[in-house]
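Example 3.2
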Amino acid sequence: MGAIDNDWLPAVGAEFKKPYYKELYYFVMDEYSKHVVYPPSDEIFNALHLTPLSKVKVVILGQDPYHNENQAMGLSFSVKPDVSELPPSLINIFRELHDDVGCHMPNNGDLTKWADQGVLLLNTVLTVRAHQAFSHKGHGWEQFTDAIINAVNMQDRPVVFMLWGSPAQSKSFMLDNPGHLVLKAPHPSPLSAYRGFFGCRHFSKCNEFLESHGETPIDWQIEDTKTN
């Protein structure tokens, strides 16, 4: 499942020694051996690899990875740069970005640029069987990602949490550090985006909060990939 070798290891390494994680490990390995599972096994911990704990400024919490072919890349809501048809939730995120902070709609959905700036793109469940949403729910990932959320909550610098949808908002009880900003909105899915995700202005509110605490704001604009 890939190794964690940066400052996340002392923060969550104890989880690897707990009985639930051993069961989770064998479950996930068995799934990869018998089924098509996303993301690729060496990308499961991409969010942690790309955004060290000491660099986290923002947490965007998703549910589980995209389950269609070659979309998931270990970052919540992000797809690989060569995916031509963007998932509807991601399109709605880009729509809100345009309306909120003026970003143009990019021709790709690779959010690595956000991760590199300190945006932890975390799903509550880190793997999924192809074409079966939530198929790896309830096998231990939630306990592991709760440990990640708790580690960020304990940081003594200002962090913005964006909780979109009920599953993400169910984690709000963990966020008891008064130095952080917790933003809540409906999920950007087409089923719920019109109930308050559009117009939530989370991206500008995030940057206003970061700047007010002396932090560099996030450059939300995803650049277009070059086309031949």
